[in-house]
Amino acid sequence: MGAAAGVLVAGIALPAVGGAGVGLVSAVEDVGLQPRDLAEPPLAQVSVVQDVKGHEIARFWEQYREVVPLDQIADIMKTAIISIEDYRFYEHGPIDIEGTLRALAKNLQSGGVAQGGSSITQQYVKQVLLNAAQTEAEKNKALEASYARKLNELRYAMGVEKKYSKDQILEKYLNIAYFGAGAYGVEAAAKRFFGVSASELTLPQAATLAGAVQDPNATDPNLGKTSRDRLLKRRNVVLDRMAELGKITKAQAAEAKKARLGYKGTPLPGGCESSRYPYFCVYVRNEILSNPDFGKTAKQRLAFLNRGGLTIKTTIDPAMQAAAGKAIRKWVHPSDDPVAAEALVQPGTGAIKAMAASRPYGTRKSRNEMSYNLVADAAHGGGIGFQAGSTFKTFTLLTALKQGMKISDGFSAGAGYTAPAYATFKNCAGKPIGDPGHTVTNDEGSPGWLTLQTGTWHSVNTFFMMLEQRVGLCEVIKTAKSLGIHRSDGNPLSEFETFTLGINEMDPVTVANAYAAIGARGKYCAPMAITQITESTGKTTDFAPKCRQALDPEVADAAAHVLTGVLTKGTMAAVGGIGRDAAGKTGTNDESSSAWFAGFTPDLAGAVSLGDPRGTSKYKLNGVTIGGRYYGSVFGASVPGPIWKDTMLSALRGVPPTKFAPVDGERFGGCGDSCRGLVSVTPPTGGGGPTGGGDSPVTVLPN
Q1: For 277-294, how does the pLDDT look when each residue is reduced to its tens digit (9 = 90+)?
Q2: pTM of the full structure
Q3: Helices in 111-195 by DSSP H: which ranges?
Q4: Cβ–Cβ contacts within 10 Å for residue 138, how many?
Q5: Residue 632 dihedral angles phi and psi, to the nearest 5°
Q6: Which CATH number goes with the domain that contains 458?
Q7: In a domain? residue 316
């Protein structure tokens, strides 16, 4: 026996001290084996994402596993696995002496490690080492057929048997084992194979799973008939062994063998494609993968999400999400070339309440599916977005109010605007920009006296170019940035004189969140999707809104007052309000290349974009059919505005209305004499491009 000590370790089993095991103990002592503590990293578990009500909306996982205690596993499953893998499990120590001697004899005959003789404890050790491997080299080392590896497993098995009871070891083994078909652990396997919990497994089902652990890749029923036939044969081997050991009768075994394999292939839940809220799901996933709060490196963050067994509570509101989805479906069909997208954000917290789009999210199994996040920026799985058009005029309005202009202050705007000199505008680097040879127009012209109110209500391009010139381009850019404005593609903002006309590509989340800050009286809060994360250990981390005062509250109040008129007297007048205090701004880009509406109440803000993802410069919104309706030209009030209105009416149903704070009349004045008279204004269809932006033709009414 001493001469065979080098081969003994292939058996990896330490017998109980005394009796027939004395010789083996001596051999083990010859190679210096002592119990070693096994580091047991947490098992990779499924992370569950929940909505604000606590309902599951998505799952993320690297290994699909649901850890369950031993008392939630059917007794017949425990009996089956012990019968086939280690029938003396409850009788021996870390080594099964009979299995070791059998393996030793086989290995001596073959001259190598032909048979392992591993106990369930040793198999558990092997699985732990394999799961802890970070690289391919480490994984190969955990699987290599060598005596060195067997020696290490034996040392660890000795430590495990010293640390845990037999029941604890069996529970750990059943939760770590791989059964095939992507199912890790007996609970996931029971659901994947048979559509039941581990506590509900029948004899044939338990025998099937017990048989699968020996070579789960060869018997993977998901791989086709050949693999299923192998699994069926393996199941019958388990049944025969259970009968041989007296755990079941021969009649029970024979009856169980008559049963069909019964593999259901229940889809493993998870991934954003299967989520009810796929675009929000993509946002949450990217928020964790890109946020250092969830791990210092990208690899750590991915492991945290896919292996952590997290419960992730989010801000998404089912009722508000349903409202957005229904409104979009009413106005834009999934088969339409243009795509509508909408985000709803809560003022004062930045909580994202809804993210919806007219096309389904997926891997382009059909032409209508979108493989990127239509509602968010590139950092959250989105694309380049669409130019925001005249929604950016709001930032110029805010800047003017910050600099002391009253809402009734104004000037005469012509039918066209040409920068008087190259240095008329300077970007935030102090570099002169502008093209004095280029004229921004209102197409049909809108000459006359306009104020901050009337110029905003009717989205007059030439008025806002003059206003931006007066308050300073960089100051307008700073205002926009203070409200979280950044390009959807992640590149720096384009700082040209047409900034106020919305030349930068944006996403609905960013725009809605900026407008939410106005609704919150200037309190800007970063977009927020996650409110709490509970780890598998029970550790819970709550996440609070990240807010700051970006605007003087009275400036925000005055802007809200002006923007209220857009819905009652301006470009949205034909669409109308929502029966409570609300404000917003339409946006139509150059030649109707894309269209927007961004609006808010003190309780909820939303932004809707509409454009053709094939390319807005080539595929404009002219002469198009959207949602079954024909449009000669699409404006911000044509489709985005109605979507926003229908959404808000439904989303805010049952929410007590909050009024806007009244305007400080002493500081910002009223309309007064400067708004007298009737001014004909015909805003352009352009905007967002070099010629500027505007909205649908309207008439300014006397005040």
Answers
A1: 999 999 999 999 998 888
A2: 0.81
A3: 120-132, 136-143, 147-163, 166-176, 186-194
A4: 13
A5: -65, -45
A6: 3.40.710.10
A7: yes
